[in-house]
Amino acid sequence: AQPDKTTPQGKRDRAMLYLMAFTGARSVEVQRARIGDLHSNGHLKLFVQGKGRSEADEPLYLVNSDLVDAVYSWLAVHPKGRDLAAPLFCGLGNRNTGKPLSMRTIRDLVTGYYKAAGIVDPRKTTHSLRHSLVTNLIKHGAAPTQIMTVTRHKSLDTLLNYAKEIDRDTDPVEGLVDYGNLGK
């Protein structure tokens, strides 16, 4: 189930979900993002602060056309307009209009869309969108160093935790073993 493209909430949710799915943005990065963190000079980029507050801002490249359209569609109805200090993803209710979404709200929105799509699995979380991104990049031949750049991982070991056993049932790696002609 996709968010409704015609309502402000649907536009916000679509932009947020697409951002997480196409860039691997962490929940905390979505929660901290401000309108002023968006920049364009050839590609639309969102500069995010990493997991630790002492880390330098890093760019997320928003290059998927559906993602870019979703972000601009949301910005067109954002209740804070072009206030660069305003949260990129904010509440729309009577008491929280323009205020940043809480981490809990972001998690609840994502799991709600999973459920609406028929995916009822307590292990599916906002972080599952990062796993899906890594899996997709591996399946399409991205190099590990490229994936580390996108996911902003410092360690190959961390990346390998995401990548283990992709396609294990459909294409077991043991099929690559070849000892040549064994007595035939």
What's the arrangement of strands in the largest beta sheet?
1-2-3
Number of helices: 7
Number of DSSP E strands: 3
Distance between the termini: 54 Å
What is the beta-strand fraction? 5-15%
Q: Which regions are unreliable across 5 or more consecutive residues at pLDDT < 50?
A: none
Radius of gyration: 19 Å
The helix content, as a percent range, equals 40-55%
Biggest sheet features: 3 strands, antiparallel
What secondary-structure arrangement, pairings included, does this model have?
Layout: H1 8-23, H2 27-32, E1 38-40, E2 44-49, E3 57-62, H3 65-77, H4 103-116, H5 126-139, H6 144-151, H7 156-163
Antiparallel strand pairs: 1-2, 2-3
Helix pairs in contact: 1-3, 1-5
Describe the overall structure:
The radius of gyration is 19 Å and the shape is elongated. The protein starts with 7 loop residues before the first helix and ends in a 21-residue tail after the last helix. The chain is mainly alpha-helical and 184 residues long. The longest helix has 16 residues, at 8-23. It contains 7 helices and 3 strands; from the N terminus they run ααβββααααα. A 3-stranded antiparallel beta sheet has the order 1-2-3. β2 (44-49) and β3 (57-62) form a beta hairpin.
